[in-house]
Amino acid sequence: MTPPVPAAPRSAPPFPRWAPWFFVAPWLLGFATFVAWPLGRSLVLSCLQTYGPGTTVYVGLANFRYLLHDELFWKALANTVRFTLGCVGVQLPVALGLALLLNRPSLRGRAWFRLVFFAPSLVGLAFAALLVALMFERRTGLVDAGLHSLFSSWDPDFPWLEQYVMTALILAAVWLYAGFNMVYFLAALQGVSPELLEAAAIDGAGPWQRFWHVTLPEIRPVAGLVVLMSVAGSFQLFELPYLMFNTTGDPAGPDNSALTVVMYLYQMGFLSGDLGYASAIGWVLAVLLISLALLQRWLARREEY
Amino acid sequence: MPPANPPPRPRAAAARLLDLLVYALLTGCAVVTLVPFAWMVAAALKNQTDFFTSVFLPRGDGFLGVAWDHLTLDNFRRLLVELPIPRAIVNSVFLSAGLSLLATLFCAMGGYGLAKYPFRGRAVLTTLVLGAAILPPSLLLAPGFELVWRLGLLDSYAGFLLPGLTPAFGVFLFRQAMLNRVPAELIESARLDGCGELRIFFQLVLPLVRPMTGAFIILSFLGTWNNFIGPQLILQSAERQPLAVAMNNLRGVYGTDYGLVMAGTLVSIAPIMALFLLLQREFISGLTAGAVKG
């Protein structure tokens, strides 16, 4: 090691100049190689048509022009948006509801409930797909068999994986991630000052008004972040439907009902071998997601003033 | 809602009723959450016939009306003796442990460098970290695969590990932790005492951010264990594939063998669940560190 530069008495010796660069070097190297370079390369790739990584043809903006009229891409985008809306509209209210129940001060066993609700989110989607696919099978699956034994009027041959694919995926997402988002909501709820709620109660606000006018504004920053994470995550949906339907020979599901944007990217890039078209899809997805993130930040800022 | 100043007794009764309702709702939700796990365990212990004739445990004359003697460990025996799943378990453990330890070291180093050294270029690098952290990973899928192919690293552990060693998100988390928990005076006085930069980092700074270190090791272990698309694209030979890929290949071959598939799923998620039960506090603080406190 180089000795530190002699310093004026009484002040701490300055750090050697190599030190900061030594500490950031691994990240910088990884970033340059596996983020910056591929990012630039994907801009180039999006103007190429490729047959596997070895053979490329320059096609200009043709990939993006084709994308605009590609019915499968629009189908994939529509499915992805439906799944996202389902997640935000169903799973997040469930998560918030669970958090509100758990936040009741007199509740005992809070840690146990939290543990149980959180557990499914640890199951990776590649493993969840194995379980969920069997759970939604006709007659033998847990969902049809269980509902039929609880309510005898339930059709034991309810075609979840044939006609209600998106509903099945959203239900699976509720099971998997409501408890995960609940952790964030609960942390935010525990930060709401009890004095504020008490003051509102003394002023005659009912529980609903207290929730709407005190609790919700207080947890809004965290709620905005949870919505954003949820949207970004839902937009990347791939493994769950892909692996659920992979064994049927068509991972996109019946009538492409389970096709998502990332699944289409994967199929185009790695099954059809066109890394160029896959990069174009990746850029459209990235632009969509980054605009959503900017929109959320803009909305959050506007609220502050 | 009753009018103001109700007599105390009915109010206490109402509160108790509400409590009861809350417990009932929470218990109901907990049962719904746990039932899929119970179904999976039951399916893993049944043979094919019993899988089709019973939802959970096979009915019979035994204790509680369950045919306990029908339950079998045969699915696990086939999985762990006849099929190459033990190899996949070893791969999963090796990849997850290796990646999480190295990634944590590199992220802690990066976060320390950015948080505690005023140097030219620091602002630019911090912006790059933030930018890289919000990139959707699917954007880098195609060019990343091409790069690994160019480097000649397809179908090697290195091809999978190297791109994952320096997640920007981790650098950001450690930068926050260093800013919050490591006082500059401590580092300066260590320097005054003639302590070298590396010793300061390893012996002074790392112990101060131990909670973050633990949480991040767990988080990256979990992420790697559950990663499917990375190993699916890069690790092509069966003997290098982790559980996420191996189990789905197995389902492709033995898809209708429900007991076997459920036994495999159980074996794949049980280690993660066990880790979680042991280290729940680190799990939850790791998840909320970036969002709520940061």
Structure description:
The complex is a heterodimer of chains A (about 300) and B (about 290). Chain A is mainly α and about 300 residues long. Chain A has two domains: about 20-65, no CATH class; about 65-305, MetI-like (MetI-like fold, Orthogonal Bundle), CATH 1.10.3720.10. Chain A is about 70% helix and about 5% strand. Chain A is globular and about 70 Å long. The termini of chain A are far apart. Chain B is an all-alpha fold and about 290 residues long. Chain B folds into two domains: about 10-70, no CATH class; about 80-295, MetI-like fold, CATH 1.10.3720.10. Chain B is about 75% helix and about 0% strand. The longest helix of chain B is centred in the first third of the chain and has 37 residues, at about 10-45. The radius of gyration of chain B is 26 Å and the shape is globular. Chain B starts with 7 loop residues before the first helix and ends with a helix. The chains are: A mainly alpha (about 300), B mainly alpha (about 290). The interface between A and B is large, with 96 and 100 residues.
Tell me the distance between the termini of chain A: 52 Å
Order of helices and strands of chain B: HHHHHHHHHHHHHHH
CATH superfamily of the largest domain in chain B: MetI-like
Beta-strand level of the residues of chain B, as a percent range? under 5%
The secondary-structure class of chain B comes to: mainly alpha
Give the chain pair forming the largest contact, with residue counts.
A-B, 96 and 100 residues
> Which strand order does the major sheet of chain A show?
1-2
| Mean pLDDT over all positions of chain B | 89
Helix content range of chain B: over 70%
| Largest sheet entry of chain B | none
The CATH H-level homologous superfamily of the largest domain in chain A = MetI-like
**pLDDT < 50 stretches of chain B:** none
- What portion of the residues of chain A fall into strands of 2 or more residues? under 5%
How many β-strands of chain B, per DSSP?
0
Assembly state:
heterodimer
